[in-house]
Amino acid sequence: MFxxxxxxxxxxxxxxxxxxHVNYEVKEDVAVIRMNDPTSKVxxxxxxxxxxxxxxxxxxxxxxxxxxxxxxxxxxxxxIAGADINMIQACNTSEExxxxxxxxxxxxxxxxNSPKPIVAAINGPCLGGGLExxxxxxxxxxxxxxxxxxxxxxxxxxxxxxxxxTQRLPKMVGIPGAFDMMLTGRNIRAxxxxxxxxxxxxxxxxxxxxxxxxxxxxxxxxEVAIQCAKGIVNKKISLTKEKGMMQKVQDYVxxxxxxxxxxxxxxxxxxxxxxxxxxxxxxxxIESVKAGLEQGPDSxxxxxxxxxxxxxxxxxxxxxxxxxxxxxACKKNRFGVPERPVKNLAILGAGLxxxxxxxxxxxxxxxxxxxxxxxxxxxxxQQQVYKGLNDKTKKKTITSFERDFTxxxxxxxxxxxxxxxxxxxxxxxxxxxxxxxxxxxxVEAVIPPHCIFATNTSALPxxxxxxxxxxxxxxxxxxxxxxxxxxxxxxxITTDKTSKDTTASAVAVGxxxxxxxxxxxxxxxxxxxRCLAPMLAEAVRLLQEGVDPKKLDALTxxxxxxxxxxxxxxxxxxDVAAHVAEDLGKAFGSRFGGGNVEVLKTMVEKGFKGRKSxxxxxxxxxGLKSKDVNPDIEDVLGKYKLTPNPLVSSDxxxxxxxxxxxxxxxxxxxxxxxxxxPVEGDIGAVFGxxxxxxxxxxxxxxxxxxxxxxxxxxxxxxxxxxxxFTPCQLLLDHAKDSSxxxxx
Amino acid sequence: MNAIRGKTSFKTAHLLQACPYLTATRSLSTSxxxxxxxxxxxxxxxxxxxxxxxxLVEGVRTPFLLSGTTYADxxxxxxxRAALQGLLHKTSLPKDAVDYIIYGTVIQEVKTSNVAREAxxxxxxxxxIPSHTVTMACISxxxxxxxxxxxxxxxxxxxxxxxGVEFMSDVPIRHSRKMRKTMLALNRAKTLGQRLSLxxxxxxxxxxxxxxxxxxxxxxxTMGHSAxxxxxxxxxxxxxxxxxxLRSHTLAKQAQDAGLLSDVISFKVPGRxxxxxxxxIRPSSMEQLAKLKPAFIKPHGTVTAANSSFLTDGASAxxxxxxxxxxxxxxxxxxYLRDFVFVSQDPKDQLLLGPAYGTPxxxxxxxxxxxxxxxxxxxxxxxxxxxxxxxxxxxxxxxQTYMGRKVKVGAPAMEKFNLWGGSLSLGHPFGATGCRxxxxxxxxxxxxGGQYGLVAACAAGxxxxxxxxxxxxx
Lengths: 744, 474
Hints:
GO molecular function, one term (chain A): transferase activity
Organism (chain A): Oncorhynchus tshawytscha (Chinook salmon)
Helix content of chain A: 40-55%
Oligomer: heterodimer
Domain 3-hydroxyacyl-CoA dehydrogenase C-terminal (chain A): 525-620
Shape of chain A: globular
Low-confidence stretches of chain A: 1-16
Low-confidence stretches of chain B: 1-41
Distance between the termini of chain B: 27 Å
Keywords (chain A): Acetylation, Fatty acid metabolism, Lipid metabolism, Lyase, Membrane, Methylation, Mitochondrion, Mitochondrion inner membrane, Multifunctional enzyme, NAD, Oxidoreductase, Phosphoprotein, Transferase, Transit peptide
Radius of gyration of chain B: 23 Å
Strand content of chain B: 15-25%
Pathway (chain A): Lipid metabolism; fatty acid beta-oxidation
Number of strands of chain A: 22
Helix content of chain B: 25-40%
Structural class of chain A: alpha/beta
Radius of gyration of chain A: 29 Å
Mean pLDDT of chain B: 91
Number of helices of chain A: 32
Distance between the termini of chain A: 58 Å
Largest interface: A-B, 18 and 30 residues
Number of strands of chain B: 12
Number of helices of chain B: 16
């Protein structure tokens, strides 16, 4: 059978030699267009790729032997990951970007109107510009592989799908579906995409055969896509799909202008509520979709291109793209490959943190031991891990078998048996130096010489913990954020004694756990906690000055923080906040003052420990989403009441008092060498502490806002409150010389 | 060990019956071999010093029928009884001369979960004979046989009846878990009030029945779907599959017409006619086969109803003994049961590759090569699965990448392969197929004059089995 096909196949060798990214061969009467960017791990719609694609497309159209075409990537596991961001960033004006968008629109319009049907054969990510390319094709076949995801993530970069996406998607998946895709930017798996009508046919990934599974799966995808292409040509496959009853009803409803207006209104209101108006991209997406649906395709495509140009020039997009690059950078191990991979990991303490760490480790092929001191504590932790996996089973992202198989790698125990096989121990016991010292001694008595001891602490200096160790080069800090399975950041802390291999190993484990990693120097509060502490101190002062917790939350979220300052304190735990404030206060002196620590301590005494105790700044009723301000907190605050100074108490001042202390501390961490660079500083602040993503992190914020303007504000606050607001030297340097920037 | 065994003492006995090995009479066409002359060959015997020789004395089976046909009103143990009675009748075995009875089955009737016991009692065997039931998907009766071999080898027993039964005309369909929970709670309820409130809690959702899973538990994938993916992975075309299916049906029909399927006993079904023939054999044409739409992967799949085995009712039974005992009781054994292996692989992507893994392993154990084997009987779950296994056996890359072997063992010669039809055409009552394969090898060795036969089969769970069978000197 195969020789039968191959003898009717001839490749277009001369044309291929000149091109590096796109080539094609003709199989019977189907042109198989293959993409592969030899300079990158993924395919992107770069200038080179687009030019070659247009060239090939013209040849295919001109070739009389060709009736149809298949578009496929020969790069394993990637269709097209998106447009080339650098292409957009190289533009200086919105007009230039609009032009880029229009060129893309033109190219895809030609694809859409091609007289020879084109079948997109998708394996691996098909995102952004890649998805826009695919939906311009007449037919789409996708593999059911877990790697195959479709989506329009532009919104997460502060952009919109600028090559016809805002115009084609509503027609293809309906208005609500299109908004959902474009406004959330979420990835859609192949089977869901089929249900939505985004792809026409699915192909199962293949297992071992006479070639490697990956290779054969792509080959199979190509075979099926060729069949489809032929089927379309000889009319065995119809491109106008039969509409179901539901579809007809939906189409009818969407045909009513009033209904569409209601949808725009509802979606806009929802976007405003979620984004507080701080993100322009979602609104421009709605605008572009509306223009196309209400005023026709010409206006629609024009609105899309113009809005795309405008968005590309916004500081928000710049910040979000910066975060994207930073995130990519923080997903690499700059310390090299560790000498031996961690295969057995032991976690001490099955609390929220310990169990959370176990949960993100056990499904990565690492045998995980979870140790606690009591059966009750251990069972709670094991249940947490089980629940985490079982929730995935309920959502059908894993099967019940995969859940059970994963759990088979988890051992719960109360003793140190088996620790002689551990490659790494992460302790997540109570935050008390004496307990940590006792634990490190116990553990070092049973672990093998190569085993790394990592400590999960949010504030205790690692060198103080390592003081009890007989091999401090193997001691490192791994600061996870709660809840571990949701928070992306891992802050790794090295002391001057920590060996490079230990760091490499800790980063490798973190990356396996799916974390975005920053590696910082040792010191009280490291980087993240140290930035957060002054901001929380300021928040407490504001409460003492009579700002209502709800108002405080509204002001912080209004600035772009996903969680308000008062709610954040409740989430972290008032007791933890008090603990940290006291510790860091001792370490850094009066600079960390502001709010009175006694406020927090009194709250703890009264049992207001935050969400976990049901009461903190707010009262939490199980099962209720809304929360009221804790009425008893009035008494506490009344006791420590401060009189606000009207000169620095406007809403805007309140916001900048909170933010400037955060930012100043971050810059000081860079100045002191705690931070390796501004990129890690921005990533740590955004992913660990929820610093407004639209600002791109404290360092980008300084660049965009202007160091001089920030210093000006801080000086004004300094006059009222003293050294809490004294700008650090590095910030002053940047204020003096406006050419100094943290990024580029 | 193997080399020594081959060269020494056990060779002489067979030299007496030595006769030239004539390959020339074998042709490539599908219709050959049915009337080949009886020949014996001068190959070494596989007996091992210090290990008891175990022999297959006789093997029988009920006709294999499409489920829902003549057997529809029976129960599984009825079919097993028929096979057991057939064996008794054919061997004139005294009803108390058996040490142990073992049956294999897959879908268990809850009323007769130890179907071996119910069937042996019902077949009139002495109630002093213990019996148990084993399960290992499509190789359940292989397990029944090898369990018997183990008992004989260990010196615990001398005479074993092993068999298998599957009854797909009736399968246990359960109440939903919610309903079962309510019903069990009702059992424990003490007051009328409690009972009424439990009855009141029953909703429509409680009434949805639970069918037996047709999918692999660990992967939730149906076997046909996996077979289609396997065929695609090995590049097996629809044409190849249809051709193989047609071959199976054609050969089965020829064997049936020529009266070669002598293991089939006739069975008077209570309330119905006497059945004496398998009823699933339907030689068709390539044109007819090409018309069918794919059954599992739509629209581009290659596995269809016609190139897959069908749901079947049937039972089989074999009499296995130590050689001394068989001879002492005056039997003329049919074959030696020699080396066997069980293998298992990834239930997702290698679900049906048991034969590819088992064959090289059992050949190595027996010190044989592919060329030494005269008769192959592979279980045909799907034509695509068979073709994939043959391609895997014939691939150096597969042998090196997945089996840790230096070279392939090669694919079996088709002129030795499943010449009397297979599961695709004869039918495949899951639990009963293993005994059919072994009995067929023994019968073919006798008929064709070969010395070694090889049985191989795949099973759900990604498991597999292979066994070498040696002709008993005639």
